[in-house]
């Protein structure tokens, strides 16, 4: 068998290829499908090669005047290898283990080959060789092409290089991508777009407004991409011409073979648009659809994109006016899609009106490209179903039905004698992942969440083998799990905490506003952001919300002030020393480090989970003028490093007030993690700000601050580092 493609002549003078792959043969029907494909014979594979040729000429002209080619460093290569995961091997039969075992000399050889390829634009053929392994879709007709899902298994070496280029490309494009574009971006969860939509709907309900949504799907998205247009979009976005040329070469042609079990077809060269399975394809697709994501929209309307899924959201008091604006937007979107050679699948388009009005609302009369868009009572976007009242009852019913079917797999595994640890892993992958997907957004009633909790209880009974009269709390204790409502609340609060921490988060400003702004109208079910903000407000007590990352790159002027000293002689073995010996050793170390006028800041953090979760931090301050301790606590469970960071922060803040003229500070900490952060070039922003303030008060720059690492130190009678949980 040579290879199979289907031609689609959508533009004159060029033929775009829709790749057709074959399923792994698991039944007689699959083999019939294979024979049907083989009977079609070989096809001549072509593409928009003629349209790509002018772009090559433009790139060559740009490269001549663009200077040196970008160069990847050994650190870049080592980081890329570290990110490699254990996946199926491609035609080269190499896995991540082989690359992680490379010697330093071999890494330099590989790095030289990669940089040479970037400079010349020539890609070794074996980098892009791939197996095409189609898998039958459950419940589909395996004799048709639509009944299969294709997995592309590329050579590990090629994926490594494409991953390097993809990461560089993503760093260039990230500042230009709007917050409403959610796919293939670091730190963006899949449900985040739905979370933004759910918040908009809740805000509209508070303002007594309607919400009109239209869900669209780009048909055969990767195969419809015009590579010449993609190259021009990348150049307009400021991507280095060397990288654009290399990407164009990577998409030029690939050797592929169909692999069905032990059967392997003959190798054939396939020209494609964005190849499946390539690390470059997702990032390039974001660049290609950027004109769609940034299109001009009327007031009170937003467009959310996630790969090939589009969702238009309009809010307002007049439903008729919303339909007029939505129709105008759909017409503009159709024009932009045609310009980008993209088409919308009419079978997957739907419209939905969200409203708390008790009066019956007329159906929407919307059309896309002349075809009517059906009106639905709910919309399913990225796997989460939003009903018109935002009750999530429909979504919960779908999740319960899906998870109940998965319980059969657990029962079968139990009968086969699978041990409890493996069964619990199976539960987490098959059941819990579905129960908690998008849980941050779900604001269902207590009775609806109880249905999800019953599914978890049934699964835990299968895993543990306990009888039906076993209490739920006992089952959860055995599996070290919380109830589903508790897990939902925890995930929701964590999501808002992350939004408050990162200024780049699309919900950062919204979350900050909800912390202080009361709702416009009390609803029976508050929105997910409002609920999480209320929970955080109860937990934080007198503490403030963090509105920036815990660690940021240390400014060059400040990094020179820190000197890291690790004293390994005071390890864990000092616990067994006689009383006072550790203190004498520590004091002798301080005599070497400290001079007259220096201050000592010894810190410690503590985290407990039983009987009540709490975290505390404390510090001991000693100088020639004073001796003082400062401590604090919260009802949150922090990490040990986070508690230690708080201790350092409050200690520096106290020193800033007590000893404003102090120029040298010795900070003693037993947190190796904190020291590694400082050595890596990042530091808590509060510490940097405090030191900067202190320097201004002294009217001269601080010279140095020495971090001496200590392990479980006792500073003598009456001077113990406070590790209690504060007041």
UniProtKB/TrEMBL annotation:
Keyword Transferase in record: yes
All copies of the Reverse transcriptase domain together span: 116-386
Kindly give the SUPFAM superfamilies that the UniProt entry links to this protein: Ribonuclease H-like
> Record's InterPro entries?
Endo/exonu/phosph_ase_sf (IPR036691), RdDP_mobile_element (IPR052560), RNaseH-like_sf (IPR012337), RNaseH_sf (IPR036397), RT_dom (IPR000477)
Pfam families the UniProt entry points to: RVT_1
Query: Where does the source fall among the domains of life?
Result: Eukaryota
**Which keywords label this protein?**
Nucleotidyltransferase, RNA-directed DNA polymerase, Transferase
PROSITE patterns, per the entry? RT_POL
Q: Which GO terms describe its molecular function?
A: nucleic acid binding; RNA-directed DNA polymerase activity
Gene3D superfamilies per the UniProt record, alphabetical:
Endonuclease/exonuclease/phosphatase, Ribonuclease H-like superfamily/Ribonuclease H
Q: Does the keyword Nucleotidyltransferase apply?
A: yes
PANTHER family tied to this protein: ENDO/EXONUCLEASE/PHOSPHATASE DOMAIN-CONTAINING PROTEIN, ENDONUCLEASE_EXONUCLEASE_PHOSPHATASE DOMAIN-CONTAINING PROTEIN
Q: What is this protein called?
A: Putative RNA-directed DNA polymerase from transposon X-element
What is the originating organism of this protein? Amphibalanus amphitrite
